[in-house]
Specification:
hydrolase activity, 89 residues, endonuclease, 3 strands, DNA damage, DNA repair, 44% helix, three-stranded antiparallel beta sheet, hydrolase, single chain, 2 domains
Length: 89
């Protein structure tokens, strides 16, 4: 049960970064280094000339255990359940 008001919840969710994440920046550097130009955030990267869309999802989303993937330190019980839920999809 959430103890926050809807306004508090909205404020918190607005502060969550969804652009310029570490994995997204790594893919952007790679794609740019290969000489491709792209548009941002429509989805993550769009190579319009080549009709290609690139979606960048982190380790939690895919549920694999690579050396760079880790669960957030806060609310660990929630994130363990969330990782299981995402893996079940």
């Amino acid at each position: 049960m959430d103890t926050r008001t809807p306004e508090q919840h909205r404020r918190i969710m607005r502060s969550v970064g969804s652009k310029h994440t570490g994995p997204e920046m790594a893919v952007r550097r790679l794609v740019h280094g290969l000489g491709y130009r792209y548009r941002l955030h429509l989805p993550d990267l769009v190579l319009a000339r080549h009709k290609v869309a690139i979606f960048v999802h982190g380790c939690l989303w895919h549920g694999h255990r690579c050396s760079k993937g880790r669960l957030p330190k806060t609310r660990l019980d929630f994130w363990v359940c969330e990782a299981c839920r995402l893996a079940a999809r």
